[in-house]
Write a structure and sequence with these properties.
Blueprint (H helix, E strand, L loop, with lengths): L5 H21 L7 E4 L2 E4 L6 H11 L16 H5 L3 E4 L11 H10 L3 E4 L3 H5 L1 H11 L3 E2 L10 H8 L5 E7 L2 H11 L4 H10 L8 H4 L2 H15 L9 E2 L7 H9 L3 E11 L2 E11 L13 E7 L3 E7 L7 H19 L2 H4 L3
Parallel strand pairs: 3-4, 4-5, 7-9
Antiparallel strand pairs: 1-2, 6-8, 6-10, 8-9, 10-11
Helix pairs in contact: 1-2, 1-13, 8-9
Bound molecules: NADP nicotinamide-adenine-dinucleotide phosphate (NAP).
The site of NADP nicotinamide-adenine-dinucleotide phosphate has 26 residues, from helix 1, strand 1 and helix 13.
Amino acid sequence: MTGFGNVGQGVAQLLAEHRDEYQGRYGVRLLLTGVADRRGMVVDPSGLDERGLLLAKRERGSVSTVAEQGRSVRGEFLESSEADVFVEASSTNFVDAEPGWTSIRSALGLGMDVVLASKGALVLYYAELMEIAHSAGKTVSYSATIGAPLPILELTNRALVGASVMGFEGVLNSTSNVILQAMIEGKSYDEGVQLAQALGIAETDPTLDVDGWDAAAKAAIVANTAFGSSLGINDVSREGIREVTPEQIRGAVVTGSTLKLVSSTSRHDGTVVAEVRVEQRGPADPLGRLRGSELGAVIHTSQLGDFTATVENSGGVTGGIATAYTVLRDVLNLARARGWDSAGPT
Ligand SMILES: NC(=O)c1ccc[n+]([C@@H]2O[C@H](COP(=O)([O-])OP(=O)(O)OC[C@H]3O[C@@H](n4cnc5c(N)ncnc54)[C@H](OP(=O)(O)O)[C@@H]3O)[C@@H](O)[C@H]2O)c1
C-alpha cells in the first residue's frame, strides 16, 4: 500500500481490529506486507504489525521509523512486498496522477491486482489503465473513489447488469455540501469552510472540493464505468460553490429546499455527458433530504426505474475510515472472485 494518511491508517486500523473476523466470515487472511509514505517505506512479506506502524507514524512521522520491521528501497518496494494486491492511497493530483500512476503500472507489471483510493489515474488515463490491466489479466477496483462507502460501482457493475443505465446523479463531495448547508442556515461561505475543517473533512486548502474538481472526477469515473466512455476530468462541465449567489440561497430558503453540488452523467444518442452543478433540491428529493456530510446517488435506468443509494446517520463514520472500509470491501470481493478464500493465492 502506498499512502499512510487518513485512508492508509484507516486500512491499517481495520486490519488490526478485524483481521480474524474477516478470516472467519470470508475465509481469507489479509496481511499488510508493505507500506510507503513520503519519507520512506517498510516491507515484510510475512505481514507487518499494523499497530506498530500506526504508532511509528503518530510518534515519529513515518512508517519507515518502525525499528524492528524490514525496510526497503523505493525501486524494490513493490516487488519485495510479494503482495497479491496493491492498494494506492497516496495524495491525488489531476495534473499527472503521480505518484500513483507510476506505482499502479509497476504493480500491474508485477502481476498484482490493484485497488484504488486515489482518483488521478482514473481521470487522466482511464482507457490506458484498463488496457494495461486487461493485458496483464489483472483487475483495477475503485469503489472507494466515488463517494465511499456508497455502493455505486456495485450497483452499476453487478446489480444492474442487463438493465440499461440512462443517467446518474450524486451528492458525492461532503465538504461542498457541508458548506452549502451552512450557507442555507444563514452562515457565510467562510464560516461554512471553517465548519467543514472543524469536522475534519475539509483540507486547509479546500480548492479541489469547493471548485468542483473532486465532484467532476467522480462524475467522469461514474460515466466511464456506466457507459464505457473514457472521459477525463477536463471533459466534465464544472461549476463550484464559491459563485453561489445570495439569490440562490434565498430561493432555496423560501421554497424549503436546499442547494447541493450534484455530479451527474447521462447518455443521449451515444454521446456521454458529465457535469457538476449547484442545484436546488426539495425535501422530497432523495438528494435534497441529505444533510451535512451525508452522501447519496440516484441511478436512472430505462427498464427498472430509479435506484437510490444514500448514506445517512453514519454515526460519524465518514472520510478516511469510511473510505478504508470501502478499500477493504474491494480487496475482500477481489479475494472471493479470485477464489483465494478457499485455496489461497498462488
Ligand atoms: N479521505 C477520504 O475520505 C478519501 C475518500 C476517497 C478518496 N480519497 C483519496 O485517497 C487518497 C488518500 O487520502 P487521504 O485522506 O488518506 O490523504 P492524506 O491524509 O493526505 O494522506 C496522503 C498520503 O499519501 C502519502 N504520499 C504522498 N506522496 C507520496 C509518495 N510520493 N510516496 C508515498 N506516499 C506518498 C502521504 O505521505 P506522508 O504521510 O508522509 O505525508 C500520506 O501518507 C487521496 O488520493 C484521496 O484523494 C480520500
